[in-house]
C-alpha cells in the first residue's frame, strides 16, 4: 500500500529512507545522484528525517492523497512537529483543502489627472483595448486561460491608482505582471492626461487564498497526565489568548510559517513574498490575529486555516534541479495543489506546537530535539 504513514521513519538509516522515497516518488537515478551529492557535504548528518538537501515530513494525507513533504529548514523539531500534527489529523480523516481564488494584482500610480472623473470614464471605456495590450505581452499565459482579466480604479489623494487583476496560473506572476504594466502605462497616461509615477506588481495576496481544514479525535490528544479532553480545552484557551493578545498571536503565526516557509524554500518559492502576504492578511481586520482557528466538533478538535499563498510551480528558482526534485518527491502538479499542501503543513505545525506548549512544554518536547541536533553538529 502506498502510504506516507511510516512509523519511525526518522530512525531509519539513510539507505532505508532513500529506498522508501525512491519507491514512493518513482525517483530516477539522476534524482538519486542529486540526493547523494548533498549527502557528501561535510554539513550533512545521517540523522532524524534528513535526506539529501531536505528533511522529510511524514503522515500527510491531503484530499485523500498521501504525501511525503520535503522541507528545507535548520530545525529538525519543525519536521517532527509537522509529522506529529499530520499523524493526529490523519486519525480524523486527513486534511481537506482547496484554492479559493487565483488572482494577483499590479498597480499603476497616476499623478494628478486633468479631471479624475473624465480619466476614469476614458479608461473604463477602453477596457478591452487595455486588457488586450496587457495580454499580448504574455501570449502563452493567455492561451492557458490565464492573463489580465479585469482592473479597478481608485482615487487616493491626488493619485488615480489603476489595479490590474491577473490570473498567473502556476507562476507567482511578478515578472509577467510588471511587463504588462510597463506595456500599458503610456496608454493610461495618454487617456488620463496625468503622469505615471510608478508601476509594479503587488505582493498583496488577498485574492489568492487557500482554505484547509482537518480534525483530530479528542482521545488522540492525550498527553502524559493530560486527558485528550483536557488538552483540547487548553488548546482552545491558548488560541483565545492569541485572538486577544498580539504577543501570543505573533508567536502562534510564526510557528505556522515555520512549516510553510520550509516547504516554500524546498520548492524554490519566494518565502519572503508569501510572508508579507500572510502577515498583512493576519492584520486585515485592523488587529493582528491568529491564522488558524480551532473548535470542538463533537468528539473531534477541528482546525481551519485560510491564508493567501501566492506560490509557483514554474519560473525563477522553482526551475532549479533541487526544487524540481522536491516537487517530484511531492508528486505535485499545480501551484494550487502546492498551496494546499503548504497550508496543511502550517496547520499541522500549529496543532503540534500548541498541544505541546499547553501540556509538556516546548522545551521538553520539540526544542529538546533541536538541541540534540545542534550538539551533533558541533
Summarize the structure.
By secondary structure, the protein is α+β, with helices and mostly antiparallel strands. It has 13 helices and 11 strands.
Give a structural overview:
- The chain is α+β, with helices and mostly antiparallel strands and 378 residues long.
- The chain has two domains: 9-99 and 210-377, 3-hydroxy-3-methylglutaryl-coenzyme A Reductase, Chain A, domain 2; 104-202, Alpha-Beta Plaits (2-Layer Sandwich).
- It is 47% helix and 21% strand.
- It is built from 13 helices and eleven strands.
- A four-stranded antiparallel beta sheet has the order 4-9-11-10. Strands 6-7-5-8 form a four-stranded antiparallel beta sheet.
- A hairpin with a 2-residue loop joins strand 2 and strand 3 (65-71).
- The longest helix is centred in the last third of the chain and has 23 residues, at 335-357.
- The radius of gyration is 23 Å and the shape is globular.
Write the layout of secondary structure elements.
Elements: H1 14-25, H2 29-39, E1 50-51, E2 54-62, E3 65-71, H3 76-90, E4 96-99, E5 104-111, H4 116-125, H5 127-135, H6 139-143, E6 147-156, E7 159-167, H7 174-192, E8 195-202, E9 209-217, H8 228-244, H9 246-266, H10 271-282, E10 292-297, E11 300-308, H11 321-330, H12 335-357, H13 366-377
Antiparallel strand pairs: 1-2, 2-3, 4-9, 5-7, 5-8, 6-7, 9-11, 10-11
Helix pairs in contact: 3-12, 3-13, 5-7, 8-9, 9-10, 9-12
Amino acid at each position: 500500500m502506498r502510504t506516507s504513514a511510516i512509523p519511525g521513519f526518522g530512525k531509519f538509516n539513510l539507505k532505508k529512507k532513500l529506498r522508501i522515497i525512491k519507491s514512493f516518488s518513482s525517483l530516477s537515478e539522476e534524482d538519486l545522484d542529486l540526493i547523494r551529492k548533498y549527502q557528501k557535504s561535510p554539513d550533512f548528518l545521517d540523522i532524524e528525517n534528513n535526506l539529501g538537501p531536505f528533511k522529510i515530513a511524514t503522515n500527510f494525507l491531503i484530499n485523500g492523497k498521501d504525501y511525503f513533504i520535503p522541507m528545507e529548514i535548520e530545525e529538525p523539531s519543525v519536521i517532527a512537529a509537522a509529522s506529529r500534527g499530520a499523524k493526529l489529523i490523519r486519525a480524523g480523516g486527513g486534511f481537506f483543502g482547496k484554492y479559493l481564488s487565483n488572482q494577483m494584482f499590479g498597480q499603476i500610480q497616476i499623478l494628478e489627472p486633468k479631471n479624475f472623473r473624465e480619466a476614469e470614464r476614458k479608461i473604463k471605456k477602453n477596457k478591452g483595448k487595455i486588457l488586450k495590450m496587457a495580454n499580448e505581452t504574455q501570449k502563452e499565459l493567455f492561451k492557458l486561460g490565464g492573463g489580465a482579466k479585469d482592473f479597478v480604479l481608485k482615487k487616493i489623494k491626488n493619485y488615480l491608482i489603476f489595479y490590474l487583476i491577473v490570473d498567473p496560473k502556476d507562476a507567482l506572476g511578478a515578472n509577467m505582471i510588471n511587463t504588462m504594466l510597463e506595456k500599458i502605462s503610456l496608454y493610461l497616461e495618454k487617456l488620463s492626461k496625468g503622469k505615471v509615477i510608478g508601476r509594479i506588481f503587488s505582493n498583496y495576496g488577498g485574492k489568492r487564498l487557500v482554505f484547509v481544514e482537518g480534525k483530530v479525535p479528542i482521545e488522540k490528544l492525550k498527553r502524559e497526565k493530560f486527558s485528550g479532553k483536557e488538552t483540547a480545552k487548553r488548546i482552545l484557551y491558548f488560541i483565545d489568548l492569541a485572538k486577544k493578545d498580539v504577543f501570543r498571536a505573533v508567536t502562534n503565526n510564526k510557528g505556522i510559517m515555520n512549516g510553510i516557509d520550509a516547504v516554500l524554500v524546498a520548492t524554490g518559492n519566494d518565502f519572503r513574498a508569501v510572508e508579507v502576504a500572510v502577515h498583512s492578511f493576519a492584520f486585515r481586520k485592523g488587529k493582528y490575529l491568529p491564522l488558524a482557528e480551532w473548535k470542538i466538533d463533537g468528539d473531534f478538535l477541528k482546525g481551519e486555516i485560510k491564508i493567501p499563498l501566492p506560490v509557483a510551480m514554474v519560473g525563477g528558482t522553482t526551475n532549479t534541479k533541487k526544487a524540481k526534485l522536491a516537487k517530484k518527491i511531492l508528486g505535485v502538479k499545480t501551484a494550487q495543489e502546492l498551496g494546499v499542501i503548504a497550508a496543511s503543513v502550517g496547520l499541522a505545525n500549529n496543532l503540534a506546537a500548541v498541544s505541546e506548549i499547553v501540556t509538556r512544554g516546548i522545551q521538553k518536547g520539540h526544542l529538546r530535539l533541536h538541541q540534540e541536533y545542534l550538539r551533533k553538529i558541533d
